[in-house]
Amino acid sequence: VLQKWVNREISNFDYLIQLNTMAGRTYNDLAQYPVFPWILRDYTSEELDLNNPEVFRDLSKPIGVVNEKNAKTVKEKYENFEDPLGIIDKFHYGTHYSNAAGVMHYLIRVEPFTTLHIQLQSGRFDCADRQFHSIPATWQALMDNPNDVKELIPEFFYFPEFLENQNGFNLGQLQISKEVVNDVVLPKWAHSPEDFIYKHRKALESEYVSAHLHEWIDLIFGYKQRGPAAVEALNVFY
């Protein structure tokens, strides 16, 4: 598979799906759901220029420290952590880049994930401000908060329906702006959910991502998962 990918006989998308499968990740288990990277960092421009390297996320860094400002906090937390019982090892992040709640968070508008989310929240929807309501706002939250380290799921590259509230669920309204949570707010450069998926998939298969995807793979599936390499990369999880 690696050789095929290097020879460009399979796409970046296919390669990631196959790596996830080999790593034991599957659509049948929310706790081991396939994980895909955030690949862009420009969610505000009117047009998306895929020839400009500046629009892409730095794939060599864990999502928690893509914003340089967070690196210091994350590093200090690791260095100062001590478990009095000596059971828990030091870590940079107390949460994970992929978990069941995160999958339900993204897929809340489509069944069976809606029902699963409601079960998780003791029979009701979580408060509107914590819902997945906007792609630009989700990215901004990641940049501001080193404790939020959610990567993406494959649906961001092929499934426009998850961005629309086609079932008309009452997801509440945001506390400050009083805006009703309905369809997911898209970046300015996307004119519809289909347009977002088309451009996002194009970004995934772009020259920049093809040249840097292995850096992210090292963090999630490769040698930077544990040991000294993980410590150095600020990539140690609880």
TrEMBL record:
One of its GO terms (molecular function) is protein kinase binding. Keywords: Repeat, WD repeat. Residues 1-238 form the BEACH domain. InterPro entries: BEACH_dom, BEACH_dom_sf, BEACH_Domain. It comes from the Eukaryota. PROSITE patterns: BEACH. GO terms for cellular component: cytosol; membrane. It holds the Pfam family Beach. Coiled coil: none annotated. GO terms for biological process: intracellular protein localization. This is NBEL1 protein. The lineage of its organism: Eukaryota, Metazoa, Chordata, Craniata, Vertebrata. The gene is Nbeal1_0.
